[in-house]
Amino acid sequence: MSVAIKADNLRKIYSGNPPVVALKSASLEINDNEFFTLLGPSGCGKTTLLRLIAGFESITAGELCLYGNNISNLPPEIRPVNTVFQHYSLFPHMTILDNVAFGLRRLGTDKNKANSVAQEMLDLVHLGEYGARKPDQLSGGQQQRVALARALTPQPKVLLLDEPLSALDLKLRQAMRSELKRLQRETGITFVFVTHDQEEALSMSDRIAVMSAGEIQQIATPDEIYERPANRFVADFIGDANFYDAVAGKHKDELVEYIIDDITSLKGQRVESIKENDKVTLAIRPEKVSFVKAGDKDTLAGTVSDIMYLGNTTDYLVILQNNETIKVRAENHHNGEAIANVGEPVSLAINPAALRILKK
Amino acid sequence: MKKLFNIIDQYKGVLPSALMVGIFMLIPILIIVVYSFMIPNPNGGGRTGFSFDFFQKLFFCRDLFDNLVFSTGYLKIFFRSMWISIIAVIVSLLVGFPVAYYIATQNADRRNFLVLLITIPFWTNLLIRTYSWILVLRDTGLVNSMLISSGIINEPITLLYTEGAIILGLVYTYVPFMILPIYASLERLDIRLIEASRDLYTTHWGALRYVVIPLAMPGIIAGSILVFIPSIGAFIAPELLGGGKNLMLGSLVQLQFSSGRNWPFGSALAVIIMAIVLIALLIQARNSRKNGTEIVH
C-alpha cells in the first residue's frame, strides 16, 4: 500500500496580534485509495490541515508530501488535488456543465473532450440532465453533487472534502454518505474528509484522525476509535462515556481493581504501562453497563434518578452509593416499557473488558 | 372612482419621488426639448416659433449663397467628445478596477474607511479641483519642474491644454463613479470562488479572468456608463485643461447659452447628448436582460 499524503510535523500559525496557532504539529500518513477522515470540534485545526493540503494556506513549518513529492511550497493550481467546498462554491455565472468541465479546460483539455468527460461525471452523480442549468436553479443536494462532480472530473490524486454534508438536511445527508462511499470505491481516488459529525466519520471512514486544539489525538479505524479511545478527549468526543477518576490497585491475574473511593471500585483489564497506585481515568460507555438482579457478585448498587427516552434506546441516570452518577443505556424491547422507574433501587454490572483505562 | 382610489393607494408610496423626478427632471428636460425647436433671441432665450434648423446645423452650414452644404465642424466636435469619453472610460476602468478589487478584499472596517476616502474629492468644488490640476500640469508646474530639476528633461513638456490633459481631468473627476459600482459587485463576490478556481488549476490571473471579471461585469458596465455619461457632456475639464481649443460637446453647449446667445442650438445639442446617453442605457438594459444579471446602481 503506497502512501498518498505524508505530513511531517505540519505547523500553521496565522500571523496577527496575537498570532493564532491553528495547527500545533500534525504528522500523519494517508494511504492510497483510503477514505480518511479528519474529525474534531470546530477550531480543532482540521480545516486548517485540509487547507494546507489543498495549498490555500502557506505552511509555517514542517513538510507535506504527495506520493513522495514534496508539495509544501506549491501553489494550489499545481497540486493534483481537488476540493469539495463546504458551501459548494459553484461558479454562479457558468452552466453546470461548464462548472464541471472547468478544471479539465484549465488543464488544457479541448472543449469537446472536457465536456464529454464532464457529462460522464454528471451521469455518475445522477445529474446528467442538468448540464444546461445554472447553479442557482438547483437544490442544495444537487449543488452538492455538482461540486463533487466538478472536483472529481480532473481525476485528482486526492479529493479533499470540507464538511460537504453539513448544509444538507438529515435524510439527504444520510443518502449522501453511501453515495460518497460508492464514488470513492468507483473512482479509486483517495478521499480526505473533514467533519465534526462523529456519526458521519464512523460510518464512512477507513481510518479517522481525531483532532483537538490543533493536535491529532488519535489515528485509528472507526471501531478502534470507539472501543479503544486513546485519551479522555477521544472517549468524550466520540459517543457517550462515563468518566471516573481512580487509582490502580493490586492486580490479581489479568484483572486489576481500580479504586474510585472507599466504597466503590471497578474491575478492569490490566494495562501494561500502568503500575499500582497510578492515577487513572476510567471510561465506560453507557451501553456497556447492564442491569442485573440484586445480590449478584461484583455489582454496583444505585438509585435511578432520571430517565430519557430516545426511541430505540433509553438512558437511565443512576446515582451510585458514593453519590457519583452513571449513565446507563439500554435497548428498548417489547413495547418500550422502562426497565426501572425513577426512584427505584437497581444493580448494575460492568464487564471488565468494557472498562477503558486511560492514563492521567 | 373606487378603482382610482385603489390605484392611488397602491402607488402613494412612490408619490414623493415621482413628484421629485417630475419637477426636477422631466419638466427641465421638456423645457430643453421645447427650446431646441425655437428661434433664437439675440438677447438670449428663444422666440416662439418652430424651427428644425438647429438639428440641421449639426451636419450642415450655409455657404455664402445661403445654400446648405455638408459641414464637419460640429461633427468633429461630436466625434472628439465620443472618442475622449471612451478613452476616459477605458482609463477609469484600468485605474478603477484594481482599486475596487483592493478595497473589496480588505476587512469590513478598512473597507468602509477606504470607500469614504474615495468620496472625499466630492467634498471640494470641482472647479477648484480642476484649477489645481492646472498648477500641476502647466509648463512651470509641479510635474515639469520636478522632471527638469531631476535632469530627465531640459525643456518643459506641454501637458496642459492637450487632449491628454482633458482625459486626465475626466478620469480624475469621474473615476469614483467607476470604482464604487465595481466595488459593490466585487464586495458581494464570494472570495471562496477564487479559491475554488485556484483549486481547479487556474493561476491568480486565471481566477481574475474566468471568475472575478465575469462576476464583476454588472459593476464594470454600470461604472463605464456612469463615467461615459458625464464625460460626454463635461465642460469644466475640457474648458480648463483643454484650454477651450479642443472643443467638446459640453463646452459647445455652454458656449451657445453664454456668449453664443443661441439657446435653441444649445438645447438641440443637449438633446443630442441626451439621446446618446439614452442609447447607451438601452444597450446596457438589453445586455443585462440577456445575461439575466441586474444593473448595479
Question: What does this molecule look like?
Answer:
The complex is a heterodimer of chains A (360) and B (297). Chain A has helices at residues 46-54, 96-106, 111-124, 140-152, 170-187, 198-204, 222-227, 232-237, and strands at residues 3-14, 20-31, 35-39, 61-66, 69-70, 81-84, 158-162, 190-195, 207-212, 215-220, 242-252, 255-259, 265-269, 279-284, 289-292, 300-309, 313-320, 325-331, 345-350, 356-359. With 360 residues, chain A is an alpha+beta fold. In chain A, the strands form four sheets. Chain A has a six-stranded mixed beta sheet, with helices on both faces. In chain A, strands 13-12-11-14-20 form a five-stranded antiparallel beta sheet. Chain A has a five-stranded antiparallel beta sheet with strand order 15-19-16-17-18, with no helix packed on it. Chain B has 297 residues and is mainly α. In chain B, 69% of the residues lie in helices and 3% in strands. Chain B is built from 13 helices and four strands. Chain B has helices at residues 2-11, 15-35, 53-56, 73-104, 108-119, 126-137, 142-149, 163-187, 191-199, 204-233, 236-240, 249-257, 263-291, and strands at residues 39-40, 46-47, 60-62, 68-70. In chain B, strands 1-2 form a two-stranded antiparallel ribbon. In chain B, strands 3-4 form a two-stranded antiparallel ribbon. In chain B, a hairpin with a 5-residue loop joins strand 1 and strand 2 (46-47). In chain B, helix 4 packs across helix 10 (204-233). The relative contact order of chain B is 0.13.
Quick structural summary:
By secondary structure, chain A is an alpha+beta fold. Chain A contains 8 helices and 20 strands. Chain B is mainly α and 297 residues long.
Principal-axes shape call of chain B: globular
Low-confidence stretches of chain A: none
In total, how many beta strands of chain B? 4
CA distance, first residue to last residue of chain A: 35 Å
Number of beta strands of chain A: 20
Rg of chain B over CA atoms, rounded to whole Å, is: 24 Å
CATH fold descriptor of chain B: MetI-like fold
Strand order in space, largest sheet of chain A: 6-7-8-3-9-10
Strands in their spatial order, largest beta sheet of chain B: 1-2
Report the radius of gyration of chain A as a whole number of Å: 25 Å
Structural class by sheet pairing and helices of chain A? alpha+beta
The helical percent of chain A reads 10-25%
Along the chain, the helix and strand elements of chain B come as HHEEHEEHHHHHHHHHH
- Assign the CATH superfamily of chain B: MetI-like
**Helix count, DSSP H or I runs of 4 or more residues of chain A:** 8
Largest interface: A-B, 23 and 17 residues
**Terminal CA distance of chain B:** 37 Å
Instruction: Output the structural class of chain B.
Output: mainly alpha
pLDDT averaged over residues of chain A? 89
